[in-house]
């Protein structure tokens, strides 16, 4: 039986979202970027962004006090004036929050949580609590995009978080960028970054359609979680469509293959319904092809040459990125080239 996840209430034009620093406190070094994100979100969606009590206390304080970061999450969940939760930026140590996270509070106060990268720890905490969560842009990334929010980002957020629940197809971004822009230089905030025309998705294998609930996140963070209490139980993985992405750490394609072998050894791949692979950040064309070879190799080893796999999907460490409702049912149709999120 597929696991059931509570869907949080949809966001409205008058919703208030708590801005959370659950990972790095880097935001205090780029407050101009922070205010740009707050302004752009308000202009586009009408949402008011309210910093959590510890969110702007700086890198040193938050690094030394992981419980304060977890306290901010709990504050936002229990605060009746807060409608949603938004990650300000990622980092590399959200795994340190595990001893302090209260899954009962997440379960008792299901609110939409949005983030990616190191927010994988919190996204999976929501799934472990039986609540859907949203893998999508952080405040300092696509929500503070230079020159304004990208229409692709806006469309993804509205479909996942605002519009009444209904089926919708995910689609490739018309253009993409990983161009570096100095967030500390406020004169660049209004200068649109260069984008590359989109090159579509790549269906690596699988002919039959499949359906399952979405689960996943950043592979490097999942590796930190593996074997800890933050790792979802086998039944949460059973029948899932895995959504996996890599970070600016640029793990070697072979390393991705080794992580997938671990999933095979756990039985995750044997019971998976499908696999979405994100556009890998900073990979050369040769690395991309090597990655695809490793994915096919490991799936053959696991007896899953039948598993539908679509790669180069626009989520994770790419811009603009989709918002994926983790816990929602999705249907993969390789012959039609469609990925459909179900209500």
From TrEMBL:
SUPFAM superfamilies: Class I glutamine amidotransferase-like (SSF52317), LD-carboxypeptidase A C-terminal domain-like (SSF141986)
Family stated for the protein in its record: Belongs to the peptidase S66 family.
PANTHER family: LD-CARBOXYPEPTIDASE C-TERMINAL DOMAIN-CONTAINING PROTEIN, MURAMOYLTETRAPEPTIDE CARBOXYPEPTIDASE
Record flagged with keyword Transcription regulation: no
Protein name: LD-carboxypeptidase
One family name in Pfam for this protein: Peptidase_S66
Organism: Deinococcus radiopugnans ATCC 19172
Start and end residues of each LD-carboxypeptidase N-terminal domain: 20-136
